[in-house]
């Protein structure tokens, strides 16, 4: 890393899946990492993986859709690790259903976690980034942003995150802050296991069927996404901002 300061990163939804792999990867890149998730105890595995690897990590319990919890969590990270200047808005949930069966709660929950969560976390961290004259925001979008059956709520939220990303890039660029989005295709995590269960398929068969449709002929791993996040959050990526990178084993359209 080209800086002598150990910069602090927050990874939301860091207890498992893509967030956990990203926390581990960013620690390897030299960041001190706050692993933030709904339940602080659930972050322990990720924190242990980072520390076993020689890195520094802190478990933080927080619901990203709650203003007060976000404010307290970011304050705690700043006090215990240092000012958070790298933010990965990764926390996410699914509430899939066809439109006619989608409840108000399905809609609101997905908007609150993905959109309100990314907004609250970005707003709470931006002061630290401005003060440091450096910042990196990465929002987890999705291939579903292009539209996906059964995901009116999720596709809307993931497309919305692309708008947020580009706006943050424009507003905050003059402070040395970049904002980019990573839009994964099919990644093997609890989330895709949940989708397989919803459509009544065995998870292995579901992965095989997905791999057949992907140009590189395999499904993605959390580390594939962590790799893209590491690029966007790197010290030398300061001229890359407002971009959406689809990481899906091939082009989507
Ligand atoms: N897995 C995929 O194929 C895929 C594809 C495209 C995009 N994504 C996106 O990548 C991100 C990570 O997905 P994943 O597959 O690792 O999912 P996952 O379900 O395995 O993990 C999501 C994490 O977010 C946490 N979380 C949920 N609500 C939260 C809240 N309100 N506050 C704090 N934490 C909360 C969960 O507890 C969980 O640990 C999500 O934003 C998801 O939408 C995933």
Average pLDDT, rounded to a whole number, is: 97
For the largest beta sheet, what order do the strands appear in spatially? 3-2-1-4-5-6-7
What ligand species are in this complex? Answer: nicotinamide-adenine-dinucleotide
CA distance, first residue to last residue: 36 Å
State the total count of DSSP E strands: 7
Shape, principal axes of CA atoms: globular
Structural class: alpha/beta
Number of helices: 8
Unreliable runs: none
What is the CA-atom radius of gyration, in angstroms?
17 Å
* Strand percentage: 15-25%
Helicity level:
40-55%
Largest sheet: 7 strands, parallel
Pattern of helices and strands: EHEHEHEHEHEHHHE
Question: Could you outline the blueprint of secondary structure elements for this entry?
Answer:
Blueprint: E1 8-12, H1 17-28, E2 32-37, H2 44-52, E3 57-61, H3 67-80, E4 84-89, H4 104-132, E5 135-140, H5 152-172, E6 177-184, H6 190-198, H7 203-213, H8 222-233, E7 244-247
Helix pairs in contact: 1-2, 1-8, 3-4, 4-5
Bound molecules: nicotinamide-adenine-dinucleotide.
Task: Characterise this structure.
The chain is globular. Strands 3-2-1-4-5-6-7 form a 7-stranded parallel sheet, with helices on both faces. Helix 4 links the parallel strand 4 (84-89) and strand 5. Helix 3 (67-80) runs parallel beside helix 4 (104-132). 46% of the residues lie in helices and 16% in strands. With 253 residues, it is α/β, with parallel strands linked by helices. Bound molecules: nicotinamide-adenine-dinucleotide (NAD). Nicotinamide-adenine-dinucleotide is lined by residues 12-13, 15-19, 37-38, 62-65, 90-93, 113, 117, 140, 142, 184, 186-187, 189-192.
């Amino acid at each position: 890393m080209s800086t002598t300061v150990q910069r602090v990163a927050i990874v939301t939804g860091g207890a498992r899946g893509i967030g956990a792999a990203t926390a581990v990867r960013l620690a390897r890149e030299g960041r001190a990492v706050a692993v933030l998730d709904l339940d602080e105890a659930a972050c322990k595995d990720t924190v242990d993986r980072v520390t076993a690897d020689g890195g520094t990590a802190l478990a933080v319990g927080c619901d990203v859709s709650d203003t007060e919890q976000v404010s307290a969590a970011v304050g705690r990270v700043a006090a215990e690790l240092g000012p958070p200047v790298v933010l990965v808005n990764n926390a996410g949930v699914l509430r899939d259903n066809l439109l006619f069966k989608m409840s108000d709660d399905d809609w609101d929950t997905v908007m609150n976690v993905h959109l309100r969560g990314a907004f609250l976390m970005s707003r709470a961290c931006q002061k630290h980034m401005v003060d440091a004259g450096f910042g990196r925001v990465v929002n987890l979008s999705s291939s579903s942003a292009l539209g996906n059956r059964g995901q009116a709520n999720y596709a809307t939220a993931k497309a919305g995150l692309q708008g947020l990303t580009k706006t943050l890039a424009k507003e905050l660029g003059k402070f040395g802050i970049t904002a980019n989005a990573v839009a994964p295709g099919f990644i093997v995590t609890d989330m895709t296991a949940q989708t397989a269960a919803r459509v009544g398929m065995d998870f292995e068969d579901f992965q095989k069927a997905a791999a057949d449709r992907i140009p590189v002929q395999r499904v993605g791993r959390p580390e594939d996404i962590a790799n893209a996040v590491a690029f966007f959050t790197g010290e030398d990526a300061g001229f890359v901002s407002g971009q959406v990178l689809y990481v899906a084993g091939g082009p989507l359209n």
